[in-house]
């Protein structure tokens, strides 16, 4: 029997202050979103995994199966938010200036222009029914960039795509500031997009 090392997941550091994305996202939303919502996903993931390990040690298969939706939901929430925070950044640190290099070239190749890409992305993210995530992903088999959407906290990797950029369109991400106007939130986010992070993710995806 090999010893299984059990990971306890941690809330990652937010790479900027709560007010760093103002006026696009208020400090109030950032604090609640990061320190309450994301933290709850991490905590609930760890609780579900602990129960899962316990069930596994007893060969209690039905309990193991029953815990999978909590692991998927909370684990997906943790993974997706961890990407989202790093996709954003303060304007003072260069956010909002648009993609450069190979990522910029591939966006033009696959969508026609950066503006055409943004328009298509905005539409896709805005039209997600209920809670979910809008994505730009890289398809490693066809070697193209694709816009995709996921419900709840489903993972982009489950669609065979490597995450480059994501936008959280759960109401908790914008409602205190933008009310029902999700389209305005999605459009405003381009001002605080950290393209250096997306370029790094893209380089990792293509190598
Ligand atoms: Mn969220």
Mean pLDDT: 96
The SSE order reads HHHHHEEEHHH
Strand order of the largest sheet: 2-1-3
Give the structural class: mainly alpha
Give the termini distance in whole angstroms.
36 Å
Q: What's the short story on this structure?
A:
By secondary structure, the chain is mainly α. It has helices at residues 27-57, 61-66, 68-87, 101-111, 114-126, 175-178, 182-189, 195-206, and strands at 132-139, 144-151, 161-168.
Model description:
- The chain is built from eight helices and three strands; from the N terminus they run H-H-H-H-H-E-E-E-H-H-H.
- The chain has a three-stranded antiparallel sheet with strand order 2-1-3.
- It starts with 26 loop residues before the first helix and ends with a helix.
- The protein has 207 residues and is mainly α.
- 51% of the residues lie in helices and 12% in strands.
- The protein has helices at 27-57, 61-66, 68-87, 101-111, 114-126, 175-178, 182-189, 195-206; strands at 132-139, 144-151, 161-168.
- Strand 1 (132-139) and strand 2 (144-151) form a beta hairpin.
- Helix 1 runs antiparallel to helix 3 and helix 5 packs antiparallel against helix 7.
- The longest helix is centred in the N-terminal third of the chain and has 31 residues, at 27-57.
- Bound molecules: manganese (III) ion.
- Manganese (III) ion is lined by residues 33, 37, 81, 168, 170, 172-173.
- Residues 33, 37, 81, 168, 170, 172-173 line the site of manganese (III) ion (MN3).
């Amino acid at each position: 029997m090999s010893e299984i090392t059990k990971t306890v997941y941690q809330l990652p550091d937010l790479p900027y202050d709560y007010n760093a994305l103002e006026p696009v996202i208020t400090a109030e939303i950032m604090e609640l979103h990061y320190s309450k919502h994301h933290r709850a996903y991490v905590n609930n993931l760890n609780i579900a995994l602990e129960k899962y390990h316990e069930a596994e040690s007893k060969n209690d298969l039905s309990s193991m199966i029953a815990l999978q939706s909590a692991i998927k939901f909370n684990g997906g929430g943790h993974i997706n938010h961890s990407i989202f925070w790093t996709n954003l950044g303060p304007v003072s640190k260069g956010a909002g200036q648009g993609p450069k290099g190979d990522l910029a070239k591939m966006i033009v190749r696959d969508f026609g222009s950066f503006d055409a890409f943004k328009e298509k992305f905005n539409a896709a993210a805005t039209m997600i029914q209920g809670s979910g995530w809008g994505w730009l992903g890289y398809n490693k088999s066809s070697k193209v960039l694709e816009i995709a959407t996921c419900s709840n906290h489903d993972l982009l990797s489950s669609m065979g795509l490597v995450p480059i950029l994501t936008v959280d369109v759960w109401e908790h991400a914008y409602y205190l500031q933008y009310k029902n106007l999700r389209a305005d939130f999605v459009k405003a986010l381009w001002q605080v997009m950290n393209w250096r992070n997306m370029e790094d993710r893209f380089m990792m995806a293509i190598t």
